[in-house]
Amino acid sequence: MTETEAIRVAVPRKGRPLEAVLERVADVAGSHPAGSRAHAGDADDADDIAGVADEVISTLRHEKAITKGQVEPAADVYQRLATYSDLEDDYAPEYTLLRDDRRGMPRRIVFDSLTVDVDGVPVQFVGREEPFRALRTHEFALGFDSADLVLEEVVELEPEGVGSLADVNARIDPMNTDVRVVSGLGDTVYHTLMARPEILPPGADLDREFVADYEGDLCISPRYERLVEAVLGTRPLEGVSFAYPDDDREEEAAIADVGLGVYLTMTGSTAREHGLILGDHLFPSETVLMENIAESAELSGAERVREALAAEGHETEIAV
C-alpha cells in the first residue's frame, strides 16, 4: 500500500451500476499520462487494471447466477469466498457476504472493496448497499449511485421540470444535503413516456406538451412518483392522477390498460408487444458520480480524483 492515505469512494455492491463504475475505473487507468502508475493487485498498467475489473464483474455475475439457481456451485459459499479473496495483497479485490432478498434469503457474495491509484492518488472503492445515503450522512466525500435517487429524495418539486444536471443540482436544498451530482457514466436506460396510439390526437407527439394538456390517469411505478413530478414539473401534472400497476403485472401491461404511462425502456420491445408507442425520453436512469462538497473540501486529493472519475465529454442531458 502506498504511504498516502487512500480516498474512499462509495460504490454499489453488485449489479449493472457497479459494473459501470469498474469499467470507468479501467478507462481512467488507460488515460494516465506517461510515467504515472495505475495500480491494482500486481498491476502496473491499464491492461492489468482492466483485467481486475473484468474479473470482479465475471465473479459477481457468476455469484448472481448461483443465487438465482441458474448455476450449481462447485463449493459452498464460504469456500468460494476464500477462493476469491487475497488478504495479503492490499490492492486485490475483496468480497463479502450478504443475505439476498430472494425466497429463503440465500447468502450472496458481493463486492467489498478494491484499491486503485487514480492520477497518482490511492483510491479505495468501497461497496455499500446505499452509496447515496452514505454520502448524505458524510461517511464519504465521493460515491456512485443511481441518478434516480437524487430526484426521488432531495430535489425540490417546482412548477416546471428539470432539463440538465445543473438544474438538478440547483434544486437541491443546501439545508437538506451537501451532496451534488458531478457526472453520469452513460450506462443509460430511460424513463420514457408510452401510450396507446388512440389516445393521441392526429398529428400529436407523445411529449411533455401532450402531458401538460392531458387530463386523466398516468400509470407509473409507485416508487417513481416523486421522480416523475420532479422531471415533468408540477404544473403539467395538474389534472393528472397517478395509477399504479398491480404487484403481479408487468408495468407495460398496466400502462396499456390505463392508456398513458412512464416506465424504464432500453429497446422498448416489451412496450411495443403490448401495443404501446414510445414518446419522449424523460430522464436517463444511469449511474452518476456524486460529491459531498463539505467532505471533499477538507480532503487532500479529492478534486484530482473527482476530475479523473468524471466521464469526459459526457453530461447527462434531459430533453425538455
Strand order of the largest sheet: 2-3-4-1-5-12-6
Percent helix range: 25-40%
- The chain-level mean pLDDT equals 87
Please, how many helices?
12
- Structural class, judged by helices and strands? alpha/beta
Approximate shape: globular
Radius of gyration: 22 Å
Runs with pLDDT <50, length 5+? 32-44, 313-320
How would you name the oligomeric state of the polypeptide chains in this document?
single chain
Strand segment tally: 12
Q: What's the number of structural domains?
A: 2
Order of helices and strands: EHHHEEEHEHHEEHEHEHEHEEHH
Largest sheet: 7 strands, mixed
How far is the N terminus from the C terminus? 48 Å
Question: Percent of residues in beta strands?
Answer: 15-25%
Protein name: ATP phosphoribosyltransferase
Pfam families: HisG_halo
InterPro entries: HisG-like
Task: Give an account of the 3D structure.
By secondary structure, the chain is an alpha/beta fold. The chain has two domains: 7-154 and 287-309, no CATH class; 189-285, Periplasmic binding protein-like II (D-Maltodextrin-Binding Protein, domain 2, 3-Layer(aba) Sandwich), CATH 3.40.190. It is 32% helix and 25% strand. The chain has twelve helices and twelve strands. The chain has helices at residues 15-30, 46-67, 77-84, 131-136, 147-153, 165-170, 208-213, 225-232, 251-258, 269-273, 293-296, 302-309; strands at residues 7-12, 94-99, 107-118, 121-128, 142-146, 179-184, 189-195, 216-219, 240-243, 260-265, 277-285, 287-292. It has a seven-stranded mixed beta sheet with strand order 2-3-4-1-5-12-6. β8, α8 (225-232) and β9 form a beta-alpha-beta unit. It is globular, with a radius of gyration of 22 Å. This is ATP phosphoribosyltransferase. It comes from Halobellus limi.
